[in-house]
Amino acid sequence: MYQLNFPNGNVQTYNSFGDLQRAANLLGGEAKQISGNTYAFVPKK
Fold first, then answer.
1. H-type alpha helices, 1-45
2. From the DSSP assignment, how many helices (H) and strands (E) are in the chain?
3. C-alpha neighbours within 13 Å on the C-beta side of residue 40
4. Alpha carbon distance 21, 14 (integer Å)
5. Deepest in the core among 1, 16, 17, 24, taking most CB within 10 A?
6. Mind giving me the DSSP string for 7-45?
7. Kindly report the CA angle at 40 between 9 and 42, in degrees rounded to 5?
8. How far apart are CA 24 and CA 4, in angstroms?
9. Average pLDDT of the chain?
10. In whole angstroms, what separates CA 28 from the centre of its chain?
11. 5 burial level (CB within 10 Å; 0-12, 13-18, 19+)
12. CB 22 within 8 Å of CB 12
């Protein structure tokens, strides 16, 4: 499982990195790896 942390404190989990990356792109940002399978959502400027 892959975890995506948002700046507002929300956390989403995904079955694959591809799903996580697609979700981040659809939300107008990208995923930056924090550690292991944990990523932070970074909005595009």
1. 17-26
2. 1, 4
3. 10
4. 9
5. 24
6. TTS-EEEESSHHHHHHHHHHTTEEEEEEETTEEEEEE--
7. 100
8. 8
9. 97
10. 11
11. middle
12. no
Q: What tokens appear for 14 in the block?
A: 């995904």
Q: What is the pLDDT of residue 45?
A: 81
Q: What is the pLDDT of residues 20-41, one digit of tens each?
A: 999 999 999 999 999 999 999 9
| Residue 5: per-residue pLDDT | 98
How is residue 33 written in tokens? Answer: 């790896």
Taking the chain, what is the end-to-end CA distance rounded to the nearest angstrom? 28
Written as six digits, the tokens of 32 are 């930056």
Pairing of strands 29-35, 38-43: antiparallel
Tokens of 8: 């507002």
